[in-house]
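User: Hey, my collaborator sent me this sequence without any context and asked if I could get a structure. I don't really work with proteins. Can you help?
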Amino acid sequence: MEKLEIHTLICKRDVSWWLDTFKLFEHYSGLNCEVHVHEDGSFDQADCEALKREIPFVVIRRRQDADTMMKDALRGYPLCTHFRFAEHHTIFRIKLFDPFILSYSNNVMYMDADILFCQRPTEIIDCVNNSVGFYLRDSWSSYCVPFRDEDQDKSVDRLINAGLTYFPTRAHYSLDEIESCLEILYNHGSRGATHPFLEQSCIAYLISHQRAKGINFIELPHPQYCVPTFGKFLPEHGCTALHLNSCAFVGSHKDEHYKYELKKIEPPL
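Assistant: No problem. I've predicted the 3D structure and written it out in structure-token form, which is a compact way to encode the shape of the chain:
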């Protein structure tokens, strides 16, 4: 098996969140991995140095360099190229392409900076050891037209969240499927739209269609792995990992949750 790579896309304000996220993940998983950080163009030298102090083996993908490499990598995929480089689309578009295309090993776990690990992620470890792809179950299907629940769409599996996914081989990832998804989305008005769920719609389409072809993807068990809906600081929730995203309802107690979990693994004074 190729070496596991953990990839994340972050801006400068997320550097400290990512360091805490990875600290907890490394502590509980014990997995031997490389760490690849894709920055959105906001990093300065101090950000890079902060990451390298805490994670000496980190690979930092600077935005300008990545843009140059991705222009060549996406040649022949006009809609993927448009989506990756159109400035009106949200920065989340980068995580649809760069972690997988710029991977050294093609054994890629993508993890947002706000995935809080609270205990040993046994199911994730088993998936990595057995090369089984996975995704995090969302609390609602946050997709774009025509894949929303109210569109009565049956081509995309419900409740796929793009914040924590695993693609253990190159066969799990397909630019052809993403190009097909973007054609559908663009034909339904998304070409000129700024929408935060275009990238998630593409990930959901990709996983759904790859799974239909017999490529192994599973949903991480819910609610052990979840986007929480309890809307308050709940220290002993019993979950393995929480996606404390930017939604005010979900992330309003993010700082309290992180401080509580980090204190549990800090050595006594």
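In plain terms: The longest helix spans residues 175-190. You can pass these tokens on to your collaborator as they are.
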